[in-house]
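REVIEWER CHECKLIST
Item 1: Sequence provided? yes
Item 2: Single chain? yes
Item 3: Sequence as submitted:
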Amino acid sequence: MIERLMLFDLPDDNALYDALIARSAAYEGLAYVCVKTTGIFCRLTCPARKPKRENTLFYDSVATCMQSGFRPCQRCRPLEEAGREPIVDQLLTALDRDPAARWTEDDLIAGGYDPSTVRRAFKRSLGMTFLDIARYRRLGEAAKQLANGARVIDAQIEAGYESGSGFRAAFQRLIGKAPALSQKRDLLRADWFETPLGPMVAVADQTHLHLLEFHDRKALPAELDKLQRKTRSTVAAGRTPAIEQIDAELKAYFDGRSASFRTPLALGFGTAFERQVWLKLMEIPVGETRAYGDIARDMENPQIVRAVGRANGANQMAIVIPCHRLIGADGSLTGYGGGLWRKQWLLRHENEMKSKRLSVEGIQ
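Item 4: Structure as written out by the authors:
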């Protein structure tokens, strides 16, 4: 069996595009093309009309393509593989009939499948579980195209809300869970705003940002509760100058105009070690990444890689403290609280920002 290559061992995107034009089978199973204008990903041997170079992205796995919001092509069918286990093909066929279905383990059992058997079969064949594939297919169905080709996830659909008012009501319930701990202290205010990656929730006092997270982060309710207990304050819906500032800075960031964040951050929720790690993360330049071990060595203690990982996971200032710029020692993407598809999007976006900046500097 050919040993699977990592994305970073493959030729550059220009060489892969040449292979796509030639319909070369040299990278079959090792590289896939994602087409920005259609939201589809294909094998390089796909017989479909070839996209323009600027409309293509190349990834090394089906999982990464789907995590980035792309749907499998119905002509070259990149999820199919000769000689694969029948259970995989059966469930993929069922998923093709209704890509927006919300599958659960109970659905598998009702269909006569053992969830553990299904999980192992899909991991062997595609490197991800069937339930993950079903979830990413739903994301792909809900996706829309941005003008620059990036993927937009309709957060309301993904969250299960049929209307904006439903999401706003859920936000109010989330904030309303807070215990009344203000004790004559200033209230923390919370508001949410739309981004290309779905709504983000910001919590701040008048001058400092205390929390910035994607709305669907599972840890968000616990983070809000911890924040209120730590500050002995209550979170109420509303805006402050700090929220207005971070909203404006995020708009500039997502528009590709600036990656500079100057909103003051309240980092008292972290330990001294965690704050030290976060400051190191903020030193990583836009368009670059670091491994966990790199941060540990910068802190002059190579033995604390796991502790760095825990501190990274404790960050509750998404994007501003750029924990998405940390990757595995082998160059692979690692866990991200907002979802790997968001991490992939952010790294791609920042790489494009860096390229544009260097082009401008070159002209000058």
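Item 5: Key structural point noted by reviewer: Residues 1-8, 142-167, 177-184 have pLDDT under 50 and may be disordered.
Item 6: Recommendation: ____
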